[in-house]
Amino acid sequence: MRNRCASLSAPTAGRCVQLGVIAALLSVCGLAAASVDVPAHAPGKSLLQLRTGDFETTPDKNFLLTNTGFAAGWHVVQLDGPMTAARHEALTLAGLRLTSYLPANAWIEPLDADRLDALRALPFVEWIGAYSVEWKIDPELAARPYKTVYRQDLHDRGMCKVVVVLFEGEKTGEIAAALAAAKADVLDSNFVGGQWLIDAEMTPAAARDLASLASVQFIEDAPEGSFRNDSTRWIIQSNVSGQLPLWNAGLTGLGQVAGVIDGTPRITHCMFSDTVAPGPTHRKFIGWRNAGSNDTHGTHVSGTIAGDQTPFNAYTTHDGIAYRAKMSFSNASTIWSSTGTLEPRLNDAFNDGARVHSNSWGDDGTTAYTTWCRQIDVHTWNNQDSVVAFAVSNQSTLKTPENSINVLAVGATSDTPNQANRCYGGVGPTADGRRKPEIYAPGCDTVSASNSACGTTSLSGTSMACPAVSAGGLLVRQYYTEGFHPSGAANAADAFTPTGALIRATLLNGTVDMTGVTGYPSNAEGWGRLLLDNALYFPADTTRKLWLRDVRHASGGLTTGQVAEYQFQCNGWQSPLKVTMVFTAPPAAVNASNPVINNLDLEVVAPSGTTYLGNVFTSGQSSAGGTADLRNSVEQVLINTPTSGTWTVRVRGTAVNQGPQGFAIVASGNIGDACTGAPIISHPQDMTVDEGQSVTLSVVASGVGLQYQWRRNGMSLSNNSRTSGVQSSTLFIDPVLAGDAGNYDVLVINACTSVPSNIAVLTVNIPNPCPPDIDGTPGLSVSDIFTFLSLWFANDPQADWDGANGVDVSDIFAYLSDWFAGC
User: Fold this and answer.
1) pLDDT tens, position by position, 251-302
2) Are the CB atoms for 792 and 771 separated by under 8 Å?
3) For residues 103-107, average pLDDT
4) Which helix (H) or strand (E) covers residue 152, if one does?
5) What share of the chain is helix, strand, coil (3-state, %, to 5)?
6) Separation of alpha carbons 108 and 101, rounded Å
7) pTM of the full predicted structure?
8) How many Å apart are CA 636 and CA 704, to the nearest integer?
9) Cβ of 409: how many Cβ atoms within 10 Å?
């Protein structure tokens, strides 16, 4: 490690040395992370990937090495590799917030001199530099081709509409004064994801002047929203005319709510009409916000999702895909005029019970990761159960916000008999190289409700496909919430609440190749056309079963370097084996050109040992070899003729910079749960006790009918007058004797096999005075060091360990010497 303290002034250098001592102590105790290698295929770790262009972080601008030019304010802190749990703890102790990530491996942070000194003591911090004014202006500012008369007129008058984004936690006082001085017309302001977003009209020059304000993070050209314009029901269910397996099983959307942001539906249309006003008791629209005049587009979209004409609760020609579901509506035009209202409207629908949100609109003027994209990812990261679907652009290439990390991006196929062909949908990838669009459904000549009393009309576009996929998502959610998994029939005892990642993974796992599009998968068709009968299991499916795992962030989510491993049994080649992994990622900084923060990688291992990596395809199916995908939050493995035997699925936490990161896995094929040992969730822990005290060792495992056998030094234990619970999950020894010391483990036994826990070392001390044991618990531990450091930082007299010159750095070394000497 280079000496970062040598070139600093005496007071600062002294503080740096002290912090270095603390960092060394933490390293000795195993709490500071070692350097983490960046994968060979990762972007250059010294590069900041910004919308204004890539920036190379160089030593001459590094405040780790000099104080010259440093001033308190917003800075970028770059690490030498991905975040780990230990690094996160150390950086948090140094005062960082770690809420705004920039690629690669960097964080936007407010720093003062004390925080800077603390960071200098951490060997994995690679670079610290000021957040530059040059990074704050959207390169597309006032340079986009505008479509609406309003924006064209504004441009002709030498004006532009912008969104000013403040740094997280900054107040609006400074920017309000500057906007007034610039004679800007402030249209709206919204607090979204911890940041203020301000819509305003001004000259481009005035917008650029605002970049000099300390509170401003980014100024972008405001988005310009526009819409993206009775066979669908069977095409997405079975692709066989008249065959409706989901409806036949009772999956019609009952109990589900869709969020719909669109033009105002005609509420009096017979597919929606009711005797009560829109609200909680309305039969269709339980949420109704900012309604305008009746709109054909919004009426058509809503009809496709959940339209239901008389007789109610039974299918009538042209009813919606989830005809027994309800909807929460918000007017898209209000979001187009007030950029910062997208996330609040998604939240409103979520609070109404909506867990799948359909959006048939977007901004065709840019491919950047904009404030709309960030708002979608903020909503889905904060609400893990949410799925947000967007119709992709009808133009030739993908636009925004369908390029958001967590959006389900939908394209349109032709209607029968040409449903294997693309009809509409901008071709990907995203500007940063991710695969979108992801899924297709019929969207050409779709018949649904018209702007009339009870009529229908035919419309075409990705706008018509998105509500079909969203309605499919409602049916998938009903499948899980009514307990259809794993039996294939409703069973209340099996019901659970799926994450949005699981719904997306289920939909994508059920897709089929569109043979009218070259290559599979591809940036044109994504993962293919939705086929719900492929996605779900019903009792009539004799050679295709459904296997899944749904892991939430806080209950099993991964950090960097962790691996989740599962197994299932493949019983033959009669059905292809398809495995899909999806994760809901954190939102990126609005000025990042690459919004990828976390990277999980899917691996599927055949019984032969052959490993297939997610998204490595040759000739339409997975192939061995290749390179792990570092960009996409959707990864898939497809084996058309799988071999029988035990297959292993792994999810690797390759780089989790903001976590823990949850995920969902869905597999389909002639498969079932492998006969494996019970997973051990919590292992017994090492203990150090004094003779005469009691000992409790515990294990937590998952499964039913489990048995246990505790062992010491590999030999099975028996109950006696001091020892009990030897065949339970918890072992008790009271009182403990010196001869009880040793290596303890427990066999966890299920119907298949036994699994040993990790070894827990029991150390038994004969009681004697132990001065370094100051944390109030028996025996020396790392906790004693932290207790001492707390006293030392507080200048407590107890920290004067060497009894000379009061509390100073020498006391740390004196205490550490005694601590290592033991007792």
Assistant:
1) 999 999 999 999 999 999 999 999 999 999 999 999 999 999 999 999 999 9
2) no
3) 93
4) helix 149-156
5) 25, 30, 50
6) 6
7) 0.77
8) 31
9) 29
Which band of pLDDT confidence, cut at 50, 70 and 90, is reported for residue 145?
A: confident
pLDDT in tens, 185-226: 999 999 998 999 999 999 999 999 999 999 999 999 999 988
pLDDT at 698: 97
**Geometric angle at alpha carbon 598, from 595 and 600, rounded to 5°:** 130
Distance between first and last Cα of the chain: 34
What domains can you pick out in the chain, each with its CATH number? 10-132 (no CATH), 149-222 (3.30.70.80), 227-512 (3.40.50.200), 543-673 (2.60.120.380), 680-765 (2.60.40.10), 782-821 (no CATH)
Is the confidence at residue 15, as pLDDT, over 60? no
Spatial contact of 631 and 671, defined as CB atoms under 8 Å apart:
no
Give dist(CA 172, CA 185) in Å, integer. 15
- Classify 138 in phi/psi space as left (phi over 0), alpha (psi -120 to 50) or beta: beta
The single-letter code of the amino acid at 321 is I
Type of residue at 81: G
Tokens of 426: 């901008």
Q: Which residues contact 820 (CB under 8 A, 6 or more apart)?
A: none
Give the long-range contacts of residues 167-171, CB within 8 A, separation 24 or more.
Answer: 167/74, 167/100, 167/108, 167/110, 167/195, 167/215, 167/216, 167/217, 168/97, 168/99, 168/100, 168/108, 168/193, 168/194, 168/195, 169/110, 169/194, 170/195, 170/196, 170/215, 171/215
d(CA 784, CA 802): 17
Q: Are 319 and 289 in contact (CB under 8 A)?
A: no
At 352-405, the pLDDT tens digits run 999 999 999 999 999 999 999 999 999 999 999 999 999 999 999 999 999 999
CB 70 within 8 A of CB 116: yes
Phi then psi for residue 329, to 5 deg, are -105, 140
Beta strand 563-570 pairing with 408-413: unpaired
Contacts of 545 (CB under 8 A, 6+ apart): 486, 537, 668, 669, 670, 671, 672
Tell me the C-alpha distance between 196 and 163, whole Å.
Answer: 10
pLDDT in tens, 775-805: 878 888 888 898 999 898 888 888 998 888 7
Q: Does the CA dihedral 186-190-192-194 come out positive or negative? A: positive
Coil/strand/helix, residue 782: helix
717-732, pLDDT tens digit by residue? Answer: 999 999 999 999 999 9
Confidence band of 768 (pLDDT split at 50, 70, 90) = low
The residue whose two tokens read 């802190």 is 77
- Could you give the CA distance from residue 171 to residue 166 in angstroms, rounded to a whole number? 8
DSSP one-letter string for 487-511: TSS--GGG-----HHHHHHHHHHTE
The DSSP secondary-structure symbol of 222 reads P
CA distance 581 to 601: 9
At residue 42 the predicted structure's pLDDT band, cuts being 50, 70 and 90, is: very low
